[in-house]
Amino acid sequence: MHPAHEPFETGTLVTGDGHEVHWEMSGRRDGTPLLVVHGGPGSGASPWWTTFCDPERYRVVLVDQRGAGRSRPHAGDTREALQHNTTADLIADFERLRAQLGIDAWVLFGGSWGSTLSLAYAVQHPEQVRALVLWAVGTTRRHEVEWLTRTMGEVYPAEFDELLASLPSDADPANVPLAVNRLLLDDDPLVADAAARAWCAWEDRLATLSGPVRPSPRYADARFRLGFARLVTHYFGHHAFLPDDAITGHLDRIVDIPAVLVRGRLDIASPLRVAHELARSLPLAELHVVEDDLHGPGSEGERILLEALDRFAGSAAPGH
Questions:
Q1: Mean pLDDT of 91-111
Q2: H/E element, 267
Q3: Among 114, 153, 289, 299, which lies 20 to 30 A Cα-Cα from 262?
Q4: Domain assignment of residue 319, yes or no
Q5: Percent residues over pLDDT 70 in the chain
C-alpha cells in the first residue's frame, strides 16, 4: 500500500439544488485521473482510498457524495440532506465535476455501494470511463436488497428479530429499510437515534459472517451513525432509485471497458452471483473471488486491487 496522499487542491461543487459537494485531488497533477466512488451510501471518502493509488502515476479525485462526509447539508444534521439525493443526482455531480476539472475520462475505483454507483455511471457515460476497479460488487437491485434485509434474517434470526422489533407495528414488512428510514426521520431525536443504532447493529452483524460481531468504531459517532443509516435506508428502501435493469440491461455499453471485480465468496452483504453474472457479460472483466467472509477487500483483495490500479495507470480513454 502507498502512504495516504495529502490533497494538493480542494473545492466545493455547488449543485444548485441545495447541496454543496466536497471534493479534493491528490497525487500527480498530470497523472491518470481516478475517481474514488465511496460506499455506504453515506460512508464518505477517507484518505484510506488513496493508499491504493501510486501518487506518482495517478491524479486521485476524492468526492464525498451528497449528505456524506464533508458535503453539506449532512444527513446526520438534517433531513433536508435526503432531498435531491438519488443515484441520478450523484451521477450528475460526477459529470459536472469531471467537466469542471477538465478531465476527459477517468478510472473509477469503488466498493460496495460505490460499485453500484460506478456501474450506473459507466453505463450512462461509457466514453468517460477508462477502467473499472470494484470490490464487494453489487448492483442494489430489488432482489439484492431483499437478500440483505430479509434472506439474511434466516441466517441471523435473533439479530434480525431485534431489527424487526425496533419497527412500529404498522410498518411494511416487505420493505424493512424504508420502514427504518421513517423512524430515522422522526422529529424525536431519541427515536431517530434508536433506529440508527438498530440499523447499524444489523450492518455490523452482516459484516462479520462467523464468530462474535466486530462492531465498527465509526458507529460510535452519533452524527455519523444517524447520517449513514439515513442514507443507506434511503437508497436501499428505494432500490437505488433505479429500474431493476438500469445496469444489467445496458452492459452492452461497457463491453469495451476493462474491469477488475473483487468479491469475498462469503461476503453476505449481497449474492456472489451478481458479480459472477456481471463478469460473464463483460468480455474485458476479470472476477477475483477471494475465499473469505470479509465485506472489505481483505489482504488478498488489497493485493489484487493494487495490481489492477498499477496496470490501469496511464490507460487511455475509450476510443483513444
A1: 98
A2: none
A3: 153
A4: no
A5: 96
Instruction: Report the distance separating Cα 276 and Cα 286, nearest Å.
Output: 10
Q: 264: which strand partners?
A: 290
The one catalytic residue in 112, 115, 118, 166 is: 112
DSSP annotation string for 13-50? EE-SSS-EEEEEEEE-TTSEEEEEE--TTTT---GGGG
Q: Which of 74, 93, 267, 288 is catalytic?
A: 267
Beta-carbon-side half-sphere exposure of residue 291 (alpha carbons within 13 Å): 0
Same domain for 123 and 247, yes or no, is yes
Tell me the pLDDT tens digit for each residue of 217-239: 999 999 999 999 999 999 999 99
Q: Which of 19, 38, 74, 295 is catalytic?
A: 295
Determine phi and psi for 145, rounding to 5 degrees: -65, -40
Is residue 267 annotated as a catalytic residue, yes or no?
Answer: yes
**E strand or H helix at 62, and its extent?**
strand 58-63
Distance CA(152)–CA(154), nearest Å, equals 5
